[in-house]
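Thread: guanosine-5'-diphosphate complex, take 2
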Amino acid sequence: MAIEQTFSIIKPNAVKKNVLGNIVEQFESNGLKIAACKLSLISKSKCEEFYAEHKARPFFGELVAFMTSGPVLLMVLSGENAVLKNREIMGATDPKKATVGTIRAKFGDSMGENAVHGSDSPTSAAREIALFFERNEIVNL
Ligand code: GDP
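Output below.
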């Protein structure tokens, strides 16, 4: 299996809980490495572009308001099978349904405030990474 990259966001509720180290530790101990990382506030327009596929969903406004409500940690994660591995480490979208020990089970508060984002495919990962990182901000691992 070739090395893959995926895009990760530690969402505002998890940043506020001061658990960045704990979450990063879960990525690292499962074989993912940080290839790029920045703490940032996302603008409303960038957030709407990022979540464009959800534009028609009833929760879209709430989702954008939450994701722009405070700082987030934006990351490119690198490793074997990184997209799927990250989804497994995160757990199900709804923290109440997430497997015990996953990030969303530990730190998610609700369906919306579910602590982390992770790309759902290599194609999404490439689009999402390009939205938030310049090529020269990403190291080759
Ligand atoms: P993910 O790939 O597991 O993040 O899930 P989706 O792609 O289905 O949804 C994207 C994000 O939209 C989720 O991570 C949630 O933050 C948010 N979301 C999904 N469903 C709901 C919902 O019913 N209500 C609210 N408020 N947010 C939701």
